[in-house]
Amino acid sequence: MFAPSTAIPRFGAWRPSRRATNIGTVVGHAALLVAFGIAGTVFFGLTVASSLGVGIAARQGIALSATDLAAAESLGSVWWLFAAGAALSFGAAMVTIGTLVRRLGARLEA
Known about the structure:
The protein is an all-alpha fold and 110 residues long. It is built from 3 helices and no strands. The longest helix has 43 residues, at 18-60. It is elongated. The protein starts with 17 loop residues before the first helix and ends with a helix.
């Protein structure tokens, strides 16, 4: 009347190993650090170049068109925005380093 049941293999959710999780965390944070570093460097370069570019070009004897001067003037007026972008990018890189150290330190203690 009752037939013996066959064992059904249990398919649980796949869980990556601790080593794979650590490697993924380090790679992800390293990519974020590179991205924040590049963004911060670009913003810092725009901060410096927007205010000094016209003076340096005039000293070198480089002829600038009216369009170039207008673009330099408009970018020079918002230097503070580029400086804020550089500060935020480098700050975010510091937070990313702190998060990575905290996560890896917690995993090593466990």
